[in-house]
Design brief:
- This protein is α/β, with parallel strands linked by helices and 163 residues long.
- The chain is 34% helix and 21% strand.
- Helix 2 links the parallel strand 2 and strand 3.
- The longest helix is centred in the N-terminal third of the chain and has 16 residues.
Length: 163
Amino acid sequence: MNRTLLLMRHAKAEDSYEVTDYDRALTTKGWGQAERVGQLLAERGYTPDHVICSAAKRTRQTLDGVLGAMELSGGLSSRPETDYAEAAYLAGADELLGLVNLVDADVSTVLVVGHNPTIAQVAASFVGSEALVAYSPATVAAVDLEVEWLYAAPGTGAGSILN
């Protein structure tokens, strides 16, 4: 079975001092970015079966924008099973990959929506160091894994940044 890992940084969020970091919402620009990523994924034929999403407000909103655009474009017939993971909010690269390692073996495509610097670090371990500087808000990479989710780790797949 082919496995694809999609690694996405949340879209542009507000710079607010009135709410906690966890509760920061997307800006209007961020909503547009999320929708464009959804359209891009649909156009390229990426359909997530499972999502790991940080439980922070901006990541949940990013996911809503992505999946909504995919549904509108016909690239998604039903919403994938989604884990809103508190652990993904402050996770380091190893912890985030640990969440991926727990995905059911029958799943073919996983979308991870997370935060920098972690999401860029995980992407860089598969696509190269350019991801460390290229991961602006709403960036997504696609990684073709050579192993089951349980064994996903740096060096077990290769991919590229999509946008």
